[in-house]
Amino acid sequence: MKTTEYAAEIVKELHRSVERIAEEESETLADIILQSNKVFVAGAGRSGLMGRAFAMRLMHTGKDAYVVGETVTPGIDKGDVLIIGSGSGETRSLIPMAQKAKSLAASVVVVTIAPESTIGSLADALVKLPGSPKNQAGSSHSTIQPMASLFEQTLLVFYDAVILRLMDKRGLESGRMYGRHANLE
What are the UniProt keywords, alphabetically (predicted)? Predict the structure, then answer.
């Protein structure tokens, strides 16, 4: 297969994945973000990179958004939300974060393939994304892509769709958001 044929197949896989996301779960996430004081985003590896992009866009919408682990990230409190992106829902470094946020009366939302996971069971709300875990044995969602690439790509597209929904709910336009874009680059 040629590179462009692979790319076309990836786009088809993403389309099938996005069609399987529950609108009610997506809307719940948007509402939680709108009602929160501060938004904290966490994830490990490539899922964490998708979360960083999401936190940046949240900041562009005017939300106080932070990436867990950065030196400028404040403490989480009641009225805040921790959003975790984790395909397996079992990422060892993320479980204590969810537990700590819960102990401080913050909300926890997980975006995952596995709602029945440890982090899923700790979450106040969750969004189930289709995708194949890193170990595809027994997976019902086939992909030509390696490891958890389909989940991570779907996660980024989903996060961007949530941003568009937040913009719609708040009457924001892209031009207005550009005023919050970094200007020391």
Answer: Isomerase
CATH number at residue 7: 3.40.50.10490
User: What Å distances lie between residue 104 and 11, 69, 88, 111, CA to CA?
Assistant: 40, 17, 24, 21
Residue 120 lies inside a defined structural domain of this protein: yes
* Active-site annotation holder among 5, 23, 24, 152: 152
The answer as to whether 183 is a domain residue is: no
pTM of the model: 0.90
In a domain, 19, yes or no: yes
Number of domains in the chain: 1
For 80-93, write each residue's pLDDT tens digit.
999 999 999 999 99
- Please indicate, yes or no, if residue 102 is contained in any of the structural domains: yes
Give the phi and the psi of residue 64 in degrees, each rounded to 5.
-75, 105
Between the alpha carbon of residue 176 and those of residues 55, 65, 73, 180, 181, the distances in Å are 17, 18, 25, 8, 10
**Beta-sheet pairing, 81-85 with 107-112:** parallel
9 is catalytic: no
**Closest to 124 (Cα-Cα) out of 156, 73, 83, 76:** 83
Q: Which of 25-39, 80-94, 162-176 has the lowest mean pLDDT?
A: 162-176
Distance CA 176, CA 182 (A): 13
* Alpha-carbon 160 to chain mean position: 9
